[in-house]
Amino acid sequence: MTSEEVGRMLNRSQLSDLSIFLLIVQHRSFRKAADHLDVTVSALSHRMKSLEERLGVRLLNRTSRSVAPPRVLTSSIQAWNSCRRNPRE
Prior knowledge:
The chain is mainly alpha-helical. It contains 5 helices and 2 strands.
């Protein structure tokens, strides 16, 4: 699937979910991301599970101590973060 195809599939709510996903990745923790957003860990967990189900891919590898994206997503996450910081580039 190309990035254009993914873009067409996403609505504003899904873009919000992607932003939440990136925050979880940045903090490498549901707890820290939840604290940052002032929401519950459960709320973030449900949003991520829903996003993974909609996209049909596992976005996060979860352990009892940490959370991280699969290696295959690392370059995509870096590109997305770059676009968020510099949207006109």
